[in-house]
């Protein structure tokens, strides 16, 4: 089958239905008395609304998911001399936020099938310098948070949950973002609760941590302006985006449900392909998340080319494990290897799963993968 145009990986018309609202909000936010464009009452209302949907005590909005990680690590007092155990396979912020606070990232290998950090490898990486664990949910599968809590508890370590890709995911009845002492979300456009710009949030039940993050996001000020209790940074949240996110929040469950249904359909179609070297994520909804739909393919590059030839855009996350990246080479001790992270970086391929896909597009994507397996 040939088709007109390509099915894009991310929806180019993500905010089509909200365009008028966005323009109205620009006017409304721009003309409020007081002219408050950051950290105003809309941000506070957005934080409260998000906390309520999560059943969390505190949500602190900030300028990005990356910044949220840095704020949490700083608030926990992670710094020079400390080690933080992070997945060897994942996005750069897992490593660079640790480096930014002056600590050392220690890379742990991942599970070969789910590609989330392997609890046994985390346990093996604990030393007397370990201060925190920072597991991340991967595409389609949440990290083994019960195991992470158990390991953190037993060794007296702090637990940061990078839930940037997993907003809306639920594991054992508990939402992503609420498993760690602190969790983080990213509102960068393409994430599940993406916005018309940049943003992030810290989620926590710990009032001390919340208070520290709140101060750190605005130059270490607490209460009195221009009085700085500690060295902070600028990681504030935008009032216009807070208003837009408040508007988008009620529609989030519906969009997540659409993503989940598409993912379930893919998994159903792809489960029989295992003997052809294509492995979908495990079936079911517990511990699944649907930022993108990630499968493993022995002939990944050929599958990607086949999809492209049939008008389907796909992405490789990530072409190299973190410790293999030039930026993190100095944190890759001589002789240490991460074989499952390396295998994942050679086999992983992500398919579009965004809620604006039509049923026909979903079917075409599934058919194209199945045709590749059968060829
Ligand atoms: C997107 C992402 C981040 C960073 O979020 P930004 O808002 O882009 O800074 C952190 N961790 C993971 C796992 C992510 O996917």
Describe this structure in words.
There is one protein chain. This protein is an alpha/beta fold. It has 2 domains: about 15-250, Aspartate Aminotransferase, domain 2 (3-Layer(aba) Sandwich); about 250-375, Aspartate Aminotransferase, domain 1 (Alpha-Beta Complex), CATH 3.90.1150. About 35% of the residues lie in helices and about 15% in strands. It contains 12 helices and 14 strands. The strands form 4 sheets. It has a 7-stranded mixed sheet with strand order 1-10-9-6-4-2-3, sandwiched between helices. A 3-stranded antiparallel sheet has the order 11-13-14. A two-stranded antiparallel ribbon has the order 5-12. α2 (about 40-55) runs parallel beside α8 (about 240-250), α3 (about 65-75) crosses α4 and α3 packs across α7. It is globular and about 70 Å long. Pyridoxal-5'-phosphate binds next to α3. The site of pyridoxal-5'-phosphate (PLP) has 13 residues, from α3.
């Amino acid at each position: 089958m040939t088709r007109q145009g390509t099915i894009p990986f991310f929806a180019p018309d993500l905010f089509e239905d909200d365009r008028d609202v966005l323009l109205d909000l620009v006017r409304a936010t721009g003309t409020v008395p007081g002219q408050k464009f950051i950290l105003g009452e809309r941000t506070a209302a957005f934080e409260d609304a998000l906390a309520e949907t999560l059943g969390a005590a505190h949500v602190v909005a900030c300028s990005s998911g990356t910044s949220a990680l840095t704020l949490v690590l700083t608030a926990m007092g992670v710094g020079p001399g400390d080690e933080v155990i992070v997945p060897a396979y994942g996005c750069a912020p897992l490593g660079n936020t640790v480096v930014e606070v002056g600590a050392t990232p220690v890379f742990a290998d991942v599970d070969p099938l789910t590609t989330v950090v392997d609890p046994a490898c985390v346990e093996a990486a604990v030393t007397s310098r370990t201060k925190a664990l920072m597991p991340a949910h991967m595409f389609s599968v949440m990290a083994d948070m019960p195991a992470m809590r158990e390991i953190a508890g037993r060794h007296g370590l702090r637990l940061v949950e990078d839930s940037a890709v997993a907003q809306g995911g639920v594991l054992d009845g508990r939402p992503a973002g609420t498993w760690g002492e602190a969790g983080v979300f990213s509102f960068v456009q393409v994430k599940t609760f993406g916005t018309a710009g940049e943003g992030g949030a810290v989620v926590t039940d710990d009032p001390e941590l919340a208070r520290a993050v709140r101060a750190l996001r605005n130059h270490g000020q607490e209460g009195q302006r221009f009085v700085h209790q500690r060295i902070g940074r600028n990681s504030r949240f935008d009032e216009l985006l807070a208003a837009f996110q408040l508007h988008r929040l009620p529609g989030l469950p519906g969009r997540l449900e659409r993503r989940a249904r598409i993912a379930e359909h893919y998994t159903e179609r792809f489960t029989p392909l295992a003997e052809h070297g294509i492995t979908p994520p495990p079936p079911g909804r517990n511990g699944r998340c649907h930022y993108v739909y990630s499968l493993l393919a022995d002939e990944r590059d050929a599958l990607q080319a086949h999809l492209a030839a049939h008008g389907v855009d796909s992405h490789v996350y990530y072409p190299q494990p973190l410790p293999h990246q030039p930026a993190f080479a100095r944190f890759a001790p001589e002789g240490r290897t991460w074989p499952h992270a390396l295998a994942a970086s050679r086999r992983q391929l992500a398919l579009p799963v965004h809620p604006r896909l039509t049923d026909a597009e979903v079917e075409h994507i599934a058919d194209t993968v199945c045709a590749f397996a059968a060829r």
